[in-house]
Design brief:
The N terminus is likely disordered. The chain is globular, with a radius of gyration of 21 Å. By secondary structure, the chain is mainly beta. The protein has a 7-stranded mixed sheet, with no helix packed on it. A 6-stranded mixed sheet has the order 25-24-27-32-29-30, with no helix packed on it. The chain contains 4 helices and 34 strands.
Length: 473
Amino acid sequence: MLTRRSAIRLGALGGAGLLLSGGRAAAGTAPAVTPPAPFTVPLSVPPVLRPVRRTLTSDVYALTMKEADVEILPGVTTRVRGYGGLFPGPTIRARADRTTVVTHTNGLTVPASVHLHGGHTPSADDGQPMDMVMPGGRRTYTYPNQQVASTLWYHDHAHHTEAESVFLGLAGTYLLSDAWEDCLRLPSGDQDVVLMLRDVKLDEQGGIAFSMLDGSAERDILLVNGRPQPYMKVSGRKYRLRLLNSSNGRHYLLGLDNGDALTQIASDGGLLPAPVPATTVALSPGERVDVVVDFARYAEGTRLVLTNTDPEAVDRTRDVLRFDVGAPEPDDSLLPDRLRPLPALGAATVTRDVVLDFDPVSGDPTIDGKVYDPDRVDTQVAFGADEIWRVYNKDVTFRHNFHVHGVHFRVLDRDGTPVSGHEAGWKDTVAIPNGSTVRLQARFDRHTGRYLYHCHMLEHSSMGMMAQYEVLS
């Protein structure tokens, strides 16, 4: 009998399985279509969604989730599930303290639930796994945007199907700005670019082939904004690149092939206190890092490759994106020495232990020995409390990560060693290697109600590596 444990462990080892191919039946072990050579396809940028209405306090949007045929590989038609039929979905630009209202219509044949990842939203608008929009139905989500400028994203979270639906395309970016960030004069406009990184597996007909059994070795086509290993034309000036790992399970270790540093300026929850140069930037599924690259330091005609040197990367998944440097341009943007101060942490009154593992009998992925039950509250938190959570990855096979809904947290240390770079900023998702313990601290002062915490390797959360906490008034 194929248990959940054996399914995803076989996936890590490259096992085969039943494939769902965007509405087509894949032929098991039939050869997949061949992707083009790297850097032969231009980068595309997701369009910015236009509001259907504006009021004095709100921007109102409408989106329909639907299947559509798109071109991922040149000349090959692929069926996707997309917000607005787009792959990836459109970008929503929001403003701090100005409400965003989005009505989603489900034009699919499967249930959906829309989660604003990193959003401080009321519980009713968080996109709970069982709070679904059924096929043919619609749901309005209200986001108060009472948080600092940051790179967020929205994606499907319907329980048991979120891994498949996100893999088939239900994901888009949500960019929140504010007056503080405006005053810094960071690169903006065409020089502020979203880069959604993910992998995909295509069957012999060009359909997206989804299987819980697949690991990163099988999903061996890297996409940036839905295009395979594209090239990006840049001018000789500064660019802000918003790196988002929207993969179901792939980890990235990103850097430039010439060894020059990327300058980290923001993490999941907004700006860092100061820019942090780094020759490599690690991203687990769901994490975001904003970096600045000044292409003015390179001669016109220079070609730079953004590479992935994560240990799981195979030959075809090491080159991510090529930057083709053009002529210098006037540049009045800045990279200040100081960005946004981080407030001091409060005194924690509660310390909790959280364990990620697999049930030794059923093989189910668990948190604290339990699979997700929407009717069970696993943790109760007092509104306004500061808590430290010690999250331990007990699993000997998989590295995991950890995402908390409804708040941002600060990572205190990993295995007793303080973190650095983007991990030292405000986070909502953090990587936890095998056998490691991460201590994080959060203040639960945003909203009351029920929220999730879970592994954001989506096959794991789909199978039940989730738990629920409730903030009590």
